[in-house]
Specification:
- The chain folds into two domains: 1-29 and 332-551, MetI-like fold; 48-172 and 198-320, MetI-like fold, CATH 1.10.3720.10.
- The strands form two sheets. Strands 1-2 form a two-stranded antiparallel sheet. It has a two-stranded antiparallel ribbon with strand order 3-4.
- The protein is globular, with a radius of gyration of 25 Å.
- The chain starts with 9 loop residues before the first helix and ends in a 7-residue tail after the last helix.
- It is mainly α and 551 residues long.
- A hairpin with a 2-residue loop joins strand 1 and strand 2.
- The longest helix is centred in the middle third of the chain and has 41 residues, at 337-377.
- The chain has helices at 10-37, 49-56, 58-91, 97-109, 112-123, 128-136, 147-170, 175-183, 188-199, 201-217, 220-225, 232-243, 249-276, 293-320, 337-377, 381-390, 398-408, 420-444, 448-456, 461-489, 495-498, 506-516, 519-544; strands at 323-326, 329-334, 410-411, 414-415.
- Mean pLDDT is 84; it is low at 547-551.
- It contains 23 helices and four strands.
C-alpha cells in the first residue's frame, strides 16, 4: 500500500510548523552534539579521539559496565516482584485494595533520589535501623551504599511500573483461558508460568524496557548512595560539569555513547515484541475471587509487606520533616521549623515548581494533541516523519538532553542557557513522547465517522476538531496531562544541568539541601513534593474514574 501524498492545507502548515520546532530544539542540538564529539576543538578536523579516550580508559568503561549490571538487575528484580503482585491484585480479593493501589502509585511517582535519601536516614551508617540493630541487638547490618543500595532503591521505586503495565494487560486476558487450563489440570503457580506469562509477554517486554530506560538514566540515586560504585549517568554529569568553560567534546562523545546504547536496547525490545505480538478478545474478563486457607495468608503477607517497604521512605521523610533541627542535626522534639526555614530560604523553588512545569505542561498538551491528530487522522509521509522524530526523545536519557540543549544554545545565534525558557524546553522534549502516545490512544477510540458527519453538515475541519473531537478527548487529555505533570515536578536529571539560582525547582533544591546536609529542609521540601503528587493523583483518579489505575 502506497503512502498518502501530502495534501497542502491548514493541517499541513501545522505539521510543517511542528517539524520546524523539532528541527530547532531537537534535531539542531543533536546535530551540534555529534559535531562536537567528532571535531577537534583546536583544528576543527574530524577526530575519534574522544571515543578512543573513553573506551581505552578502564575507569570510564567500568562505569558503563556498572550501569549495565545494576540496570539489568533492577529490570529483572522489578519483573520478579511486580508481575506476581499485579496477578494477585487482578485474580484475588485483597483487603484494602483501593488504598494499596494508591500507595503503589505514590511510591513510584516521587523522584528516585528522594527514596535514596530516605534510605540513608534509615539504613545509612548512622541510620535509625542501622543504629537500632547495632546498639540494641549488637548486630552490624550492611549499609545502603554501593551496588546493593542502588538495586534496592531503584527496584522499590520502579516495580510499580511493572505492576501498572501488567495490570492493564491482565484486564485484557480472557478468563475462559484460565478456566480451561484449570479444567485440564494446570492451575496455581504452574498456570501462572505456562499460561499467564506467555499471554502478557509483549507487555512484560514493554514494561521491562521502560524500567531499563529509567534505571539507566537515573542520576540522583547512584550519586547519593553509589560511593565507589560509579554509574554512567554520574560520569556524564561529572565530566560535563568539569568541561564547562573548556573543551566539551568529551562530554558530547559520552552523551552519544549513551544514546547509541539506549537506541540498541529499544530496537532489540521492539524486535522481540513484534515477534510475540498477538491480539486477545476479553469477552470474559478476570473477576477477583476470594482466596482461602494458606493461599489467602500468603497473598496478603506478600502484598502488604512489599507495598509497606516501598512506601516506607515517603512515610519516614514525612515524619522527619517535623523533627526539631539544630544546625545540621536532628534534635529531640517536634516543630514546623523545617517548613518555616524551607519557605523562608528556598521559597522560590516551590513557586518555580508550579510555574516552570505548568508552562511546559500547557505546551506539551497543546503540541501533543496536534501531533497525535496529524499522525492518526492525517496519515501521510509528513505525518510519518513527524511521528518518528517525536519519538526520538523517548530513547535519550534526561542528562543527555540537558547537555545537548546547553551545548546548542550556549552561544549565538540562540542563547538560552540560564533562562527559564531552556528549563521549559527540556521538560517539553522529555515528556512529549509519552503524552503523544496516550493522546493518540484516546483518539484511536473515537470513530472517524463522527468527524465525517460534522464535515458533511458544513462544519470546517478546524471547527470540527475543536468543537467535536477535542471535547470527546477531554477526559483522556486531562488524565494524561496530570500524569505528565507528576513526572515533570519530580524531574531531576535534566533540571540539574539546566537550572540557575533563579530557576531552581523543588527536586534540584531537595538534592542540593541533601548534599549540604540540611536534612530538615530537604525533608520538608520532599514532603511538599509528595503532597503535590498525592493531590495530583487524587485529581487524576477523579477525572479518569478508574480505580484500577492500570496502564
Amino acid at each position: 500500500m502506497m503512502n498518502k501524498k501530502v495534501k497542502f492545507d491548514l493541517w499541513t502548515i501545522i505539521g510543517l510548523g511542528l517539524l520546524g520546532l523539532y528541527g530547532i530544539f531537537l534535531l539542531f542540538p543533536m546535530t551540534n552534539l555529534i559535531s562536537q564529539a567528532v571535531r577537534d576543538k583546536e583544528t576543527g578536523e574530524f577526530t575519534l579521539a574522544y571515543f578512543i579516550e573513553f573506551f581505552s580508559s578502564p575507569y570510564y568503561f567500568n562505569t558503563l559496565w556498572n550501569s549495565f549490571k545494576v540496570t539489568t538487575a533492577v529490570t529483572i528484580l522489578t519483573l520478579i516482584v511486580g508481575t506476581p503482585l499485579a496477578y494477585i491484585f487482578t485474580r484475588y480479593e485483597i483487603k484494602g485494595k483501593g488504598i494499596l493501589r494508591i500507595l503503589i502509585i505514590i511510591s513510584s511517582m516521587s523522584a528516585p533520589f528522594i527514596g535514596a535519601y530516605s534510605w540513608i536516614l534509615l539504613l545509612g551508617r548512622s541510620g535509625v535501623i542501622t543504629l537500632f540493630f547495632k546498639n540494641s541487638l549488637g548486630i552490624t547490618i550492611p549499609d545502603i551504599y554501593g551496588f546493593a543500595g542502588i538495586l534496592i532503591v531503584l527496584s522499590l521505586q520502579l516495580y510499580p511500573l511493572i505492576f501498572l503495565y501488567v495490570s492493564g494487560a491482565l484486564n485484557n486476558v480472557d478468563n475462559s483461558l484460565l478456566e480451561a487450563s484449570e479444567n485440564l489440570g494446570c492451575s496455581g503457580v504452574k498456570r501462572f508460568f505456562k499460561i499467564v506469562i506467555p499471554l502478557i509477554s509483549p507487555t512484560l517486554f514493554a514494561a521491562g524496557l521502560l524500567v531499563f530506560m529509567r534505571a539507566l538514566a537515573d542520576f540522583g540515586t547512584p550519586m547519593l548512595i553509589g560511593e565507589g560504585f560509579r554509574t554512567f549517568p554520574v560520569t556524564i554529569f561529572n565530566e560535563f560539569i568539569s568541561e564547562i568553560g573548556g573543551d566539551d567534546g568529551f562530554a558530547a562523545a559520552i552523551s552519544i555513547i549513551a544514546i547509541v546504547i539506549t537506541t540498541l536496547v529499544f530496537l532489540a525490545q521492539q524486535y522481540v515484541t513484534m515477534r510475540k505480538t498477538f491480539s486477545m478478545s476479553s469477552m470474559n474478563k478476570i473477576r477477583p475471587k476470594k482466596a482461602t486457607g494458606i493461599k489467602q495468608v500468603l497473598i496478603h503477607v506478600y502484598s502488604y509487606l512489599l507495598i509497606g517497604i516501598s512506601i516506607l521512605p515517603q512515610m519516614y521523610i514525612f515524619y522527619t520533616s517535623f523533627k526539631n533541627v539544630q544546625g545540621l542535626t536532628f534534635a529531640p522534639g517536634y516543630s514546623f521549623q523545617s517548613y518555616i526555614d524551607a519557605f523562608d530560604k528556598v521559597g522560590r523553588a516551590i513557586s518555580n515548581t508550579m510555574v516552570i512545569p505548568g508552562i511546559a505542561l500547557v505546551l506539551v498538551v497543546f503540541l501533543a494533541v496536534l501531533l497525535a491528530y496529524i499522525s492518526i487522522r492525517r496519515v501521510s509521509s509528513l505525518s510519518k516523519i513527524l511521528d518518528s522524530v517525536s519519538m526520538v526523545p523517548y530513547i535519550i536519557p534526561g542528562s543527555v538532553i540537558g547537555i545537548t540543549l546547553l551545548i546548542a544554545f550556549n552561544k549565538p545565534p540562540i542563547i538560552l542557557s540560564g533562562t527559564l525558557a531552556i528549563m521549559v524546553i527540556g521538560l517539553v522534549i522529555r515528556r512529549m513522547p509519552y503524552t503523544i502516545r496516550s493522546t493518540a490512544a484516546i483518539l484511536q477510540q473515537i470513530p472517524m465517522s463522527i468527524e465525517e458527519a460534522a464535515l458533511s453538515l458544513g462544519s470546517s475541519k478546524m471547527n470540527t476538531f475543536y468543537k467535536i473531537t477535542m471535547p470527546m478527548m477531554a477526559a483522556g487529555i486531562f488524565s494524561g496531562a496530570i500524569l505528565s505533570w507528576i513526572t515533570m515536578i519530580s524531574e531531576l536529571s535534566t533540571a540539574i544541568l539546566l537550572y540557575t539560582a533563579r530557576t531552581r525547582t523543588l527536586t534540584v533544591e531537595i538534592y542540593t539541601q541533601i548534599i549540604r546536609g540540611n536534612y530538615g529542609i530537604s525533608a520538608a521540601l520532599a514532603t511538599i513534593l509528595t503532597v503535590l503528587t498525592v493531590i495530583s493523583l487524587l485529581v487524576f483518579n477523579r477525572i479518569s474514574q478508574d480505580e484500577n489505575l492500570a496502564m
